[in-house]
């Protein structure tokens, strides 16, 4: 086995994440080449389409939900847990955030705050069901969180498809929320959601670094048994972590609905695939929040650039998804090579 | 209550169960050697895509099956070597594989056939439904066994074969040993790494069949993300069946009939958003029921990292 490891070790002197990105770019380039495209053109389109001055606002706009969903995955991952139910939790948040301003009276700014908080609480509580299943019945949260997503999506889809549907359009969606209850615009496509997400991201990083709770969560991630032996209440911790994770998923749904779509539309929150991209970004950083946020922003740039690439070349933008998965797969495997070296 | 069991529904339920059953069978194999395979969804998608490509290129369904098997085995190399030689984390690798499958098939669909969404073409030859004249008219038996694709037959035969091999042969004993206690197996002279690699690849071939049934069985098309959660249902079936092929098969049947029941509910005027949820809720309830009985006993094969 050391025959495999030796040539790799030289490569390993490059820091792992840039190396993984390099591998992804090379393999992705080969794929483009094989399918008859020009990889240099493709990558140039991705870079200018995401980082040029004109496209930067679009990238930031795409980054808000993606970084949010990255945090959703990163918080449990920090403690060695995985929440696969982000889709369902986000949809619940989006629906609640749309219903509050539609059916409650009150001044706009207050409605925004109430809508966001209600969305966070609803999604957070839904997410704790999976934690409860594991702590009380031993049902692995990994699978129950995913399975719980389907009923949530189905019920929300039913609610906007039938009882609360906007009957003036042919689509399964709620009516538009009043203008007063929409998030204020900062400039161009950017809205106040960016600031909210920035604050949440900073709070998560600070919590992780400077609080007892953050320390306990990291301990759990390193060795759950040891943390439990050291007095960390594992069951309560899991419930709390899932509530926080779900609440942020709800926040993401609320920010999309209140900030850019202004209504809850069936399927609109899920089609960009923020949950899985976020999970990959969190895995890329091993759950460390700051790294995960950067990875989430990187994926957001990649995906935004993908739109430009599809516009300017004939290469479909799903290529960026292939790049992301190659990066994550390489890191998973490379990490293993490093680990073996440590043990011997 | 049981009047939803009509010949047509039974027949289509058996048909719908086939890909999930094949995937679950592969999952139990992996689980028995201590590899938690969460990539069934992605493997199935790769198989479904390759089956359509193979059938389109060769003009025969058999070519489709061969392509599906080969492609999925090749794709499974990532998992097989990733968790053994490279000691990667199975969950991370599987999440990556699922996304790679989804992205790669969508990319190739556009680049090879110039379509996005769904690819259908008269040149794609579907699997033939075998009509057995002798039992075709019989109630229940005829509904179940006649007018099914060869892969449905293969799936149920494989359930028996895997069960026998796993519990009645020395090979099976070694396989189970690798999963239960890798160090002890190593001490007894079993090459754990090789057993894991080969098992994951064989499982990959089986999931390839699942993919072929998906894209060539009922319909002869490929559409993006057409596995649509079936791989995850198979993962749950593996967990419900605690890595036992027979119990996993039972879980698949439960799911298939919940699915048929939901179609029946839809016929009674319930909106499909609600009825689509029924199989998942039934699965969740089954998870709760099976877990309350043996409270807090951890399943070593699910949590153990290889």
TrEMBL record, chain A:
<dbReference type="GO" id="GO:0022857">
    <property type="term" value="F:transmembrane transporter activity"/>
</dbReference>
<feature type="transmembrane region" description="Helical">
    <location>
        <begin position="110"/>
        <end position="132"/>
    </location>
</feature>
<keyword id="KW-1003">Cell membrane</keyword>
<feature type="transmembrane region" description="Helical">
    <location>
        <begin position="139"/>
        <end position="160"/>
    </location>
</feature>
<dbReference type="Pfam" id="PF02653">
    <property type="entry name" value="BPD_transp_2"/>
</dbReference>
<feature type="transmembrane region" description="Helical">
    <location>
        <begin position="279"/>
        <end position="302"/>
    </location>
</feature>
<feature type="transmembrane region" description="Helical">
    <location>
        <begin position="314"/>
        <end position="333"/>
    </location>
</feature>
<feature type="transmembrane region" description="Helical">
    <location>
        <begin position="241"/>
        <end position="259"/>
    </location>
</feature>
<feature type="transmembrane region" description="Helical">
    <location>
        <begin position="192"/>
        <end position="210"/>
    </location>
</feature>
<dbReference type="InterPro" id="IPR001851">
    <property type="entry name" value="ABC_transp_permease"/>
</dbReference>
<dbReference type="GO" id="GO:0005886">
    <property type="term" value="C:plasma membrane"/>
</dbReference>
<keyword id="KW-1133">Transmembrane helix</keyword>
<keyword id="KW-0472">Membrane</keyword>
<feature type="transmembrane region" description="Helical">
    <location>
        <begin position="84"/>
        <end position="104"/>
    </location>
</feature>
<protein>
    <submittedName>
        <fullName>Nucleoside ABC transporter membrane protein</fullName>
    </submittedName>
</protein>
<keyword id="KW-0812">Transmembrane</keyword>
UniProtKB/TrEMBL annotation, chain B:
<feature type="transmembrane region" description="Helical">
    <location>
        <begin position="150"/>
        <end position="167"/>
    </location>
</feature>
<feature type="transmembrane region" description="Helical">
    <location>
        <begin position="270"/>
        <end position="289"/>
    </location>
</feature>
<protein>
    <submittedName>
        <fullName>Simple sugar transport system permease protein</fullName>
    </submittedName>
</protein>
<keyword id="KW-0812">Transmembrane</keyword>
<dbReference type="GO" id="GO:0005886">
    <property type="term" value="C:plasma membrane"/>
</dbReference>
<keyword id="KW-1133">Transmembrane helix</keyword>
<keyword id="KW-0813">Transport</keyword>
<keyword id="KW-0762">Sugar transport</keyword>
<feature type="transmembrane region" description="Helical">
    <location>
        <begin position="90"/>
        <end position="109"/>
    </location>
</feature>
<dbReference type="Pfam" id="PF02653">
    <property type="entry name" value="BPD_transp_2"/>
</dbReference>
<keyword id="KW-0472">Membrane</keyword>
<feature type="transmembrane region" description="Helical">
    <location>
        <begin position="61"/>
        <end position="84"/>
    </location>
</feature>
<dbReference type="GO" id="GO:0022857">
    <property type="term" value="F:transmembrane transporter activity"/>
</dbReference>
<feature type="transmembrane region" description="Helical">
    <location>
        <begin position="197"/>
        <end position="219"/>
    </location>
</feature>
<feature type="transmembrane region" description="Helical">
    <location>
        <begin position="231"/>
        <end position="258"/>
    </location>
</feature>
<keyword id="KW-1003">Cell membrane</keyword>
<dbReference type="InterPro" id="IPR001851">
    <property type="entry name" value="ABC_transp_permease"/>
</dbReference>
């Amino acid at each position: 086995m050391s025959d495999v490891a030796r040539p790799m070790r030289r490569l390993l002197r490059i820091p792992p994440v840039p190396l993984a990105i390099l591998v992804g770019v090379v393999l992705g380039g080969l794929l483009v080449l094989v399918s008859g495209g020009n990889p240099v053109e493709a990558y140039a389109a991705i870079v200018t389409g995401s980082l040029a001055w004109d496209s930067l606002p679009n990238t930031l706009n795409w980054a808000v939900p993606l970084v949010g969903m990255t945090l959703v995955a990163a918080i449990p991952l920090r403690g060695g847990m995985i929440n696969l139910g982000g889709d369902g939790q986000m949809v619940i948040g989006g629906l609640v955030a749309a219903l509050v301003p539609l059916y409650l009276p009150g001044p706009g700014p207050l409605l925004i705050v109430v809508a966001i908080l209600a969305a966070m609480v609803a999604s957070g509580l839904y997410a704790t069901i999976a934690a409860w299943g594991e702590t009380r019945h031993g049902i692995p949260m990994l699978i129950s969180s995913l399975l719980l997503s389907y009923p949530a999506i189905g019920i929300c889809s039913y609610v906007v498809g039938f009882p609360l549907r906007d009957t003036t359009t042919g689509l399964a969606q709620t009516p538009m929320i009043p203008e007063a209850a929409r998030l204020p615009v900062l400039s161009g496509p950017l809205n106040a959601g960016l600031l909210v997400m920035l604050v949440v991201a900073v709070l998560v990083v600070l919590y992780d670094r400077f609080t007892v709770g953050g320390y306990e969560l990291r301990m759990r991630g390193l060795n759950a048994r040891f943390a439990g032996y050291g007095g960390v209440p594992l069951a309560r911790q899991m419930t709390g972590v899932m509530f926080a994770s779900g609440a942020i998923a709800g926040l993401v749904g609320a920010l999309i609905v209140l900030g850019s779509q202004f209504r809850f539309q069936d399927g609109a929150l899920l089609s960009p695939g923020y949950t899985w991209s976020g999970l990959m970004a969190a895995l890329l950083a091993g759950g460390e929040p700051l790294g995960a946020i950067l990875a989430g922003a990187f994926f957001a740039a990649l995906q935004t650039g993908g739109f430009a690439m599809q516009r300017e070349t004939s290469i479909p933008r799903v290529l960026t998804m292939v790049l992301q998965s190659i990066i994550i797969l390489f890191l998973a495997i490379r990490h293993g090579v490093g680990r073996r070296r440590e043990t011997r | 209550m049981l009047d939803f069991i009509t010949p047509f529904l039974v027949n289509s339920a058996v048909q719908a169960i086939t890909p999930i059953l094949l995937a679950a069978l592969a999952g139990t194999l992996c689980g028995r050697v201590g590899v938690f395979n969460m990539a069934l969804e992605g493997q199935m998608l790769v198989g479904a895509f390759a089956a359509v490509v193979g059938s389109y290129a060769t003009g025969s369904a058999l070519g489709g099956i061969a392509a599906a098997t080969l492609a999925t085995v090749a794709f499974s190399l990532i998992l097989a070597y990733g968790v053994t030689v490279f000691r990667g984390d199975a969950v991370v690798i599987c999440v990556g594989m699922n996304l790679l499958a989804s992205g790669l098939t969508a990319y190739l669909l556009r680049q090879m056939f110039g379509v996005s969404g769904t690819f259908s073409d008269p040149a794609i030859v579907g699997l033939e439904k075998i009509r057995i004249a002798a039992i075709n008219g019989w109630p229940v038996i005829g509904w179940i066994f006649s007018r099914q694709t060869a892969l449905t037959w293969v799936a149920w035969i494989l359930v028996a074969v895997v069960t026998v091999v796993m519990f009645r042969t020395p090979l099976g004993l070694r396989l189970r040993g690798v999963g239960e206690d890798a160090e002890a197996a190593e001490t007894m002279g079993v090459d754990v790494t090789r057993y894991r690699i080969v098992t994951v690849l064989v499982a990959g071939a089986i999931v390839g069949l699942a993919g072929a049934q998906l894209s060539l069985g009922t319909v002869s098309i490929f559409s993006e993300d057409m596995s649509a959660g079936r791989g995850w249902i198979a993962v749950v079936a593996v967990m419900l069946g605690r890595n036992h092929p027979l119990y996993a098969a039972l879980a698949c049947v439960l799911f298939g009939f919940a699915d048929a029941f939901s179609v029946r509910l839809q016929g009674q005027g319930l909106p499909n958003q609600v009825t689509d949820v029924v199989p998942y809720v039934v699965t969740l309830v089954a998870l709760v029921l099976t877990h309350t009985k043996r409270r807090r006993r951890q399943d070593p094969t699910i949590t153990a990292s290889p």
